[in-house]
Amino acid sequence: MMGKNKPNPPLTEIAAPIQKYWDREYDDEENLFDTEKYGLGEDSDLYLYRIRKFRAYRTELGLVRARTANFTVNDIVNDMIDLRQRHPHAGYLRMKRELRARGKEVKRSVKLSRAVIQEYMHRYEPDLVRRRIRRRLKRRRFWAAGVNDVWCLDQHDKLKRYGLALHICMVLTHFTGKFKWLRVWWTNSNPRLIFGYYLDRVKKDGYIPLVTQSDPVPESFCIAKGHSFIRQSLDSQLQGTLQHRYMKEKNNLPPEIAWSGLRRDCVPGLEDILANPHVDYSCDNPLQYNVFKWVAIPWFQSELDAYAKLHNSTKRRAQRNKILPHGPPDDIEEHPHRYKRSGL
Protein backbone atom coordinates (compact mmCIF):
# COMPACT_ATOMS: atom_id res chain seq x y z
CA MET A 1 0.00 0.00 0.00
CA MET A 2 1.36 3.42 -0.92
CA GLY A 3 2.41 5.51 2.07
CA LYS A 4 0.17 8.47 1.34
CA ASN A 5 -2.92 6.24 1.13
CA LYS A 6 -2.43 4.54 4.48
CA PRO A 7 -4.98 5.32 7.21
CA ASN A 8 -4.12 6.80 10.59
CA PRO A 9 -3.77 4.29 13.44
CA PRO A 10 -6.79 4.17 15.78
CA LEU A 11 -6.32 6.00 19.06
CA THR A 12 -7.22 2.89 21.05
CA GLU A 13 -4.07 1.14 19.77
CA ILE A 14 -1.55 3.87 20.55
CA ALA A 15 -3.09 5.58 23.60
CA ALA A 16 -1.10 3.43 26.04
CA PRO A 17 2.35 4.08 24.50
CA ILE A 18 1.53 7.79 24.11
CA GLN A 19 0.76 7.97 27.85
CA LYS A 20 3.82 5.88 28.71
CA TYR A 21 6.32 8.09 26.92
CA TRP A 22 4.52 11.25 27.99
CA ASP A 23 5.09 10.18 31.59
CA ARG A 24 8.77 9.74 30.76
CA GLU A 25 8.96 13.34 29.45
CA TYR A 26 9.77 12.56 25.83
CA ASP A 27 9.42 15.13 23.07
CA ASP A 28 7.06 14.61 20.14
CA GLU A 29 9.35 14.71 17.11
CA GLU A 30 12.59 13.42 18.60
CA ASN A 31 11.33 10.66 20.85
CA LEU A 32 7.59 10.07 21.07
CA PHE A 33 6.93 9.88 17.36
CA ASP A 34 9.03 6.76 16.87
CA THR A 35 7.22 3.61 15.78
CA GLU A 36 10.08 1.35 16.84
CA LYS A 37 10.16 2.88 20.31
CA TYR A 38 6.41 2.52 20.54
CA GLY A 39 6.64 -1.13 19.62
CA LEU A 40 4.48 -0.45 16.54
CA GLY A 41 7.05 -1.44 13.93
CA GLU A 42 4.98 -4.43 12.82
CA ASP A 43 2.08 -2.12 11.94
CA SER A 44 4.18 0.33 9.93
CA ASP A 45 2.93 -1.27 6.69
CA LEU A 46 -0.70 -0.80 7.74
CA TYR A 47 -0.78 2.74 9.12
CA LEU A 48 0.75 6.10 8.36
CA TYR A 49 2.00 7.82 11.51
CA ARG A 50 1.54 11.53 10.85
CA ILE A 51 3.02 13.87 13.42
CA ARG A 52 0.09 16.29 13.23
CA LYS A 53 -2.42 13.51 13.84
CA PHE A 54 -0.26 12.21 16.64
CA ARG A 55 -0.35 15.62 18.34
CA ALA A 56 -4.11 15.73 17.92
CA TYR A 57 -4.36 12.34 19.63
CA ARG A 58 -2.15 13.57 22.46
CA THR A 59 -4.33 16.62 22.97
CA GLU A 60 -7.45 14.44 22.90
CA LEU A 61 -5.95 12.42 25.76
CA GLY A 62 -5.53 15.63 27.76
CA LEU A 63 -1.73 15.65 27.48
CA VAL A 64 -0.98 19.32 26.90
CA ARG A 65 2.53 20.72 26.79
CA ALA A 66 3.73 23.54 29.01
CA ARG A 67 3.74 26.20 26.28
CA THR A 68 0.18 25.35 25.23
CA ALA A 69 -1.11 25.14 28.80
CA ASN A 70 0.54 28.50 29.60
CA PHE A 71 0.29 28.12 33.37
CA THR A 72 1.11 31.09 35.59
CA VAL A 73 2.15 31.28 39.23
CA ASN A 74 -1.44 31.91 40.30
CA ASP A 75 -2.54 28.66 38.63
CA ILE A 76 -0.25 26.49 40.75
CA VAL A 77 -0.51 28.17 44.16
CA ASN A 78 -2.99 25.66 45.61
CA ASP A 79 -1.08 22.68 44.21
CA MET A 80 2.20 24.00 45.58
CA ILE A 81 0.76 24.63 49.04
CA ASP A 82 -0.56 21.08 49.15
CA LEU A 83 2.67 19.52 47.88
CA ARG A 84 4.81 21.58 50.25
CA GLN A 85 3.21 19.77 53.17
CA ARG A 86 4.68 16.51 51.87
CA HIS A 87 7.89 17.89 50.34
CA PRO A 88 8.89 20.95 52.38
CA HIS A 89 12.51 21.10 51.13
CA ALA A 90 12.18 20.01 47.48
CA GLY A 91 13.79 22.18 44.79
CA TYR A 92 12.71 23.31 41.32
CA LEU A 93 13.15 20.03 39.48
CA ARG A 94 11.64 17.91 42.23
CA MET A 95 8.54 20.10 42.46
CA LYS A 96 8.20 20.03 38.67
CA ARG A 97 8.15 16.22 38.80
CA GLU A 98 5.68 16.19 41.69
CA LEU A 99 3.35 18.52 39.80
CA ARG A 100 3.55 16.20 36.80
CA ALA A 101 2.64 13.23 38.98
CA ARG A 102 -0.13 15.24 40.62
CA GLY A 103 -1.59 15.93 37.19
CA LYS A 104 -2.17 12.19 36.74
CA GLU A 105 -3.89 12.00 40.12
CA VAL A 106 -6.35 14.81 39.39
CA LYS A 107 -6.81 13.80 35.73
CA ARG A 108 -5.52 17.03 34.26
CA SER A 109 -2.28 18.27 32.75
CA VAL A 110 -0.04 20.04 35.25
CA LYS A 111 2.97 20.24 32.96
CA LEU A 112 4.63 23.61 33.23
CA SER A 113 7.96 25.24 32.64
CA ARG A 114 10.66 25.43 35.27
CA ALA A 115 10.53 29.24 35.05
CA VAL A 116 7.02 29.29 36.54
CA ILE A 117 8.14 27.21 39.54
CA GLN A 118 11.21 29.40 39.99
CA GLU A 119 9.05 32.50 39.96
CA TYR A 120 6.74 30.96 42.58
CA MET A 121 9.64 30.02 44.85
CA HIS A 122 11.38 33.36 44.57
CA ARG A 123 8.08 35.10 45.31
CA TYR A 124 6.78 32.95 48.18
CA GLU A 125 9.81 30.97 49.43
CA PRO A 126 12.90 33.23 49.28
CA ASP A 127 14.39 31.73 52.45
CA LEU A 128 14.27 28.19 51.03
CA VAL A 129 15.90 29.40 47.81
CA ARG A 130 18.80 30.99 49.70
CA ARG A 131 19.28 27.86 51.80
CA ARG A 132 19.56 25.57 48.77
CA ILE A 133 21.96 27.90 46.94
CA ARG A 134 24.50 27.60 49.78
CA ARG A 135 24.97 23.84 49.30
CA ARG A 136 28.37 22.46 48.32
CA LEU A 137 28.79 19.28 46.30
CA LYS A 138 31.57 16.69 46.19
CA ARG A 139 32.43 14.75 43.06
CA ARG A 140 33.21 11.04 43.35
CA ARG A 141 33.63 8.19 40.88
CA PHE A 142 31.76 4.94 40.52
CA TRP A 143 32.64 2.35 37.88
CA ALA A 144 30.30 -0.13 36.21
CA ALA A 145 30.37 -2.18 33.00
CA GLY A 146 26.76 -1.67 31.92
CA VAL A 147 23.10 -2.13 32.72
CA ASN A 148 22.51 -4.86 35.34
CA ASP A 149 26.22 -5.20 36.03
CA VAL A 150 25.78 -4.30 39.70
CA TRP A 151 22.84 -4.03 42.09
CA CYS A 152 23.79 -1.75 44.97
CA LEU A 153 22.09 -2.38 48.34
CA ASP A 154 21.93 -0.37 51.53
CA GLN A 155 19.81 0.16 54.63
CA HIS A 156 18.67 3.40 56.24
CA ASP A 157 18.33 3.66 60.02
CA LYS A 158 17.49 7.32 60.58
CA LEU A 159 13.77 6.60 60.94
CA LYS A 160 14.15 3.88 63.55
CA ARG A 161 13.21 6.36 66.26
CA TYR A 162 9.72 6.17 64.75
CA GLY A 163 9.85 2.37 64.62
CA LEU A 164 10.49 2.27 60.84
CA ALA A 165 13.50 0.83 58.99
CA LEU A 166 14.20 1.29 55.27
CA HIS A 167 16.08 -0.82 52.74
CA ILE A 168 16.98 0.08 49.16
CA CYS A 169 18.37 -1.50 46.02
CA MET A 170 19.60 0.65 43.13
CA VAL A 171 20.88 -0.41 39.73
CA LEU A 172 23.94 1.54 38.73
CA THR A 173 23.64 5.24 39.35
CA HIS A 174 25.95 5.80 36.36
CA PHE A 175 23.69 3.87 33.98
CA THR A 176 20.06 3.61 34.94
CA GLY A 177 19.83 4.97 38.47
CA LYS A 178 16.71 2.87 38.89
CA PHE A 179 15.21 1.83 42.21
CA LYS A 180 14.77 -1.94 42.15
CA TRP A 181 13.09 -1.79 45.52
CA LEU A 182 12.54 0.75 48.26
CA ARG A 183 11.00 -1.05 51.21
CA VAL A 184 9.99 -0.15 54.75
CA TRP A 185 9.46 -2.53 57.65
CA TRP A 186 9.94 -2.48 61.40
CA THR A 187 13.45 -3.92 60.92
CA ASN A 188 16.14 -3.99 58.25
CA SER A 189 18.55 -6.16 60.25
CA ASN A 190 17.15 -9.56 59.28
CA PRO A 191 19.32 -11.11 56.51
CA ARG A 192 16.50 -13.44 55.44
CA LEU A 193 14.09 -10.52 55.07
CA ILE A 194 16.58 -8.64 52.87
CA PHE A 195 17.19 -11.74 50.77
CA GLY A 196 13.41 -12.04 50.41
CA TYR A 197 13.34 -8.55 48.84
CA TYR A 198 16.00 -9.74 46.38
CA LEU A 199 14.11 -12.92 45.46
CA ASP A 200 10.83 -11.03 44.99
CA ARG A 201 12.54 -8.68 42.54
CA VAL A 202 14.26 -11.50 40.65
CA LYS A 203 10.92 -13.30 40.24
CA LYS A 204 9.34 -10.09 38.93
CA ASP A 205 12.16 -9.22 36.50
CA GLY A 206 13.09 -12.73 35.40
CA TYR A 207 16.85 -12.06 35.57
CA ILE A 208 19.67 -11.39 38.04
CA PRO A 209 22.64 -9.00 37.99
CA LEU A 210 26.25 -10.09 37.56
CA VAL A 211 27.27 -8.78 40.98
CA THR A 212 25.58 -7.42 44.10
CA GLN A 213 27.20 -4.79 46.29
CA SER A 214 26.70 -3.55 49.83
CA ASP A 215 28.43 -2.31 52.96
CA PRO A 216 30.21 -5.00 55.03
CA VAL A 217 27.25 -5.59 57.34
CA PRO A 218 25.65 -8.88 58.54
CA GLU A 219 22.32 -7.92 56.91
CA SER A 220 23.83 -8.61 53.47
CA PHE A 221 25.25 -12.07 54.22
CA CYS A 222 22.22 -13.97 52.88
CA ILE A 223 22.17 -11.95 49.66
CA ALA A 224 25.92 -12.46 49.19
CA LYS A 225 25.64 -16.23 49.65
CA GLY A 226 22.33 -16.65 47.83
CA HIS A 227 23.29 -14.54 44.81
CA SER A 228 26.67 -16.29 44.55
CA PHE A 229 24.91 -19.67 44.65
CA ILE A 230 22.54 -18.66 41.83
CA ARG A 231 25.41 -17.34 39.69
CA GLN A 232 27.46 -20.50 40.29
CA SER A 233 24.46 -22.65 39.33
CA LEU A 234 24.19 -20.77 36.04
CA ASP A 235 27.94 -20.68 35.33
CA SER A 236 30.11 -23.57 36.54
CA GLN A 237 33.29 -21.53 36.03
CA LEU A 238 32.30 -19.36 39.00
CA GLN A 239 32.48 -22.22 41.50
CA GLY A 240 34.23 -21.11 44.68
CA THR A 241 33.91 -17.38 43.92
CA LEU A 242 31.94 -14.70 45.75
CA GLN A 243 29.71 -12.70 43.39
CA HIS A 244 29.19 -9.92 45.91
CA ARG A 245 31.25 -6.83 46.72
CA TYR A 246 31.68 -5.61 50.26
CA MET A 247 32.51 -1.91 50.03
CA LYS A 248 34.30 0.09 52.69
CA GLU A 249 32.58 2.94 54.51
CA LYS A 250 31.26 5.66 52.16
CA ASN A 251 32.34 3.72 49.04
CA ASN A 252 28.93 2.23 48.27
CA LEU A 253 28.04 5.45 46.51
CA PRO A 254 24.75 4.92 44.59
CA PRO A 255 22.59 4.19 47.66
CA GLU A 256 24.23 7.06 49.56
CA ILE A 257 23.20 9.42 46.76
CA ALA A 258 19.70 7.92 46.80
CA TRP A 259 19.35 8.37 50.57
CA SER A 260 20.45 11.99 50.22
CA GLY A 261 17.72 12.66 47.67
CA LEU A 262 15.13 10.78 49.71
CA ARG A 263 16.00 12.68 52.87
CA ARG A 264 15.79 15.98 51.01
CA ASP A 265 12.71 15.46 48.84
CA CYS A 266 10.43 12.90 50.48
CA VAL A 267 11.16 12.16 54.13
CA PRO A 268 10.82 15.65 55.74
CA GLY A 269 7.10 15.86 55.01
CA LEU A 270 6.53 12.31 56.27
CA GLU A 271 8.54 13.04 59.42
CA ASP A 272 6.37 16.08 60.11
CA ILE A 273 3.32 13.80 60.08
CA LEU A 274 4.96 11.20 62.34
CA ALA A 275 6.15 13.92 64.73
CA ASN A 276 2.63 15.33 65.07
CA PRO A 277 1.56 15.36 68.74
CA HIS A 278 -1.58 13.42 67.81
CA VAL A 279 0.62 10.51 66.64
CA ASP A 280 1.39 9.56 70.22
CA TYR A 281 2.44 6.01 71.02
CA SER A 282 5.10 4.19 73.00
CA CYS A 283 7.50 1.67 71.46
CA ASP A 284 7.64 0.03 74.90
CA ASN A 285 3.90 -0.68 74.80
CA PRO A 286 3.40 -3.77 72.58
CA LEU A 287 -0.24 -2.95 71.80
CA GLN A 288 0.41 0.68 70.84
CA TYR A 289 3.53 -0.18 68.85
CA ASN A 290 1.88 -3.00 66.87
CA VAL A 291 -1.15 -0.85 66.07
CA PHE A 292 1.21 1.88 64.88
CA LYS A 293 3.06 -0.56 62.62
CA TRP A 294 -0.23 -1.91 61.26
CA VAL A 295 -1.33 1.63 60.31
CA ALA A 296 1.93 3.42 59.47
CA ILE A 297 3.92 0.85 57.48
CA PRO A 298 1.38 0.41 54.60
CA TRP A 299 0.94 4.19 54.39
CA PHE A 300 4.68 4.84 54.41
CA GLN A 301 5.25 2.10 51.82
CA SER A 302 2.69 3.69 49.49
CA GLU A 303 4.55 7.01 49.74
CA LEU A 304 7.85 5.29 48.97
CA ASP A 305 6.29 3.47 46.01
CA ALA A 306 5.05 6.77 44.58
CA TYR A 307 8.50 8.32 45.09
CA ALA A 308 10.25 5.38 43.39
CA LYS A 309 7.77 5.33 40.48
CA LEU A 310 8.25 9.04 39.86
CA HIS A 311 12.04 8.71 40.08
CA ASN A 312 12.13 5.75 37.67
CA SER A 313 9.99 7.50 35.04
CA THR A 314 11.80 10.86 35.09
CA LYS A 315 14.70 11.96 32.89
CA ARG A 316 18.04 12.47 34.53
CA ARG A 317 19.38 15.97 34.79
CA ALA A 318 21.73 16.66 31.88
CA GLN A 319 25.40 17.07 32.87
CA ARG A 320 27.75 17.85 30.03
CA ASN A 321 30.88 16.97 32.03
CA LYS A 322 29.77 13.38 32.67
CA ILE A 323 29.24 10.47 30.31
CA LEU A 324 25.76 9.53 31.42
CA PRO A 325 22.58 8.42 29.70
CA HIS A 326 20.05 11.15 30.39
CA GLY A 327 16.79 9.28 29.84
CA PRO A 328 14.33 7.93 32.40
CA PRO A 329 15.74 4.93 34.33
CA ASP A 330 12.85 2.73 33.20
CA ASP A 331 13.56 3.49 29.55
CA ILE A 332 17.34 3.05 29.90
CA GLU A 333 16.80 -0.38 31.41
CA GLU A 334 14.23 -1.46 28.80
CA HIS A 335 16.16 -0.12 25.79
CA PRO A 336 19.88 0.31 26.66
CA HIS A 337 20.88 0.20 22.96
CA ARG A 338 19.19 3.57 22.43
CA TYR A 339 21.66 5.09 24.87
CA LYS A 340 24.67 3.31 23.32
CA ARG A 341 24.85 0.95 26.28
CA SER A 342 24.42 -2.79 26.58
CA GLY A 343 22.41 -4.90 28.98
CA LEU A 344 24.30 -7.58 30.87
TrEMBL record:
Region annotation (Disordered) maps to 316-344
Q: Spell out the protein name for this chain.
A: Uncharacterized protein
Q: From which organism does this entry originate?
A: Dendrothele bispora (strain CBS 962.96)
